[in-house]
């Protein structure tokens, strides 16, 4: 049973700032273990609906739950500086110590979170605070350069500016006047000092110390708290769970289901019982229950199969499997050779050219499915395959299971100093429907290093490798495996400055497949359907809706426009009405990668009685062959008559260097 909810508690930092916390306390007598979630997304409204489905349930199961806003967000005081900053993490250590010292806590604290909260849970574990005894990390990364929304394979992701635009909108929201008398002064300061995050992140195009900070792969042994790592195959953060299971020296279990970037019980793709998984882990390490959590299989996986891929949410096809240890002896490397007539068992000689129109990638979906309302999943890849250089196997005479990270090793030359190549693996049905299994780009100037890239010499021979993203996929008899290569992948990857011709040297080009062969499966212990959980009973004033439209202009420019109206609701606990929407525009001409354009605009409204504020933010990015151009606008109004209280624009020019 739940004893009470403390709507707001102030936690003082050593420098005098106070962070705002919402606390759910269990009804049990005496101190209890605690669960901590630490985010910039506003406990008061931003995550209130989700918190109702997690922290209230945990409190009813005997945990004290603490949801804290990061400095400069929500009601928390101070200045937000950057994601996963030293301030954020040192503040997190202070909060952990504060929680452990409260009379309602027995000194044992666990962290849970998805995305930002999954990241900083691992990062705080890396710092070894004494009170932190367990972590549940979902949709996270162990390497901030290699596997976050900024860069992938040394290529700039469009998600970098997209996320920066969203974060700007989030950071300009005011504190609640019910909790902060100085809300207006603080709001103006937030508007005036909001970080230009896209600029900050793009100023670090290589894997330097900026990205190594917070990357727990730098020293695996520093993590001493047991970790349960969870994600979904429709989530971009698929590489962390198996990497953690393979490298941590403390108890660690990995699980990947069919889900998008969402808590599993809230997923729109086969929702699952997250609560039971969480309780088993937390009960073992925070309460000391001998429930066998440490004996779970190291890696539990939803093995996907071919279905009809569309951008809309729909059911997946597959089954749960498990590997008791990871890496597993059941997975072995099979080498296929790239040839002029497909993927073969023997090496061939010769060359094949890869050169793609700039707009290839239209069926690739949104970088982070789960952030939009719908229509953000990868579709049938056939249209993009037709514009790619493809290597196919023969139709399979028996099923093939892949589990792990396929690797492409290749020798190449190129006609430009900067170029990229994108590798996709697809399961193609006898009817020709192509389902993407995994993908990954590589900025070819990073062929030797992500820390010290170098311009390519046209005509010179090089060798490179691409470890494609983690996958688990079973190809049926009669289907065939396709390796599709392209020199662009828009609008997921920002294109190279010029069209490039990449020449593959086939005698040194191989595809390495992680083939899983099991004679007898162990019980997968897969999560069942979600249990009943409470939901925030907010009054809906405007329903959510979304649109997604692709057009071809008269000059051949390909345009994608999306609009997500997240609706408007009244929170039943404090009466605040919140509404928001976002529009996004991407365009590119097939013949000109430097024509790439991105624009996004967010709109937030907050109301209660006579209090009414609104924020509009817009950010755009364009380029030519030498520079990136960033432009940002922020406008804020107050009152029912929408009096403008702030308006500013920023413009920045960034040399492309080797991007």
TrEMBL record:
Record-linked Gene3D superfamilies: alpha-amino acid ester hydrolase ( Helical cap domain), alpha/beta hydrolase, Galactose-binding domain-like
UniProt entry keywords in alphabetical sequence: Hydrolase
Residues in Xaa-Pro dipeptidyl-peptidase C-terminal domain copies: 279-512
NCBIfam families with a match to the protein in the record: CocE_NonD (TIGR00976)
Full protein name: CocE/NonD family hydrolase
Organism: Mesorhizobium newzealandense
Pfam families xrefs: Peptidase_S15, PepX_C
Organismal lineage: Bacteria, Pseudomonadati, Pseudomonadota, Alphaproteobacteria, Hyphomicrobiales
GO molecular function: hydrolase activity
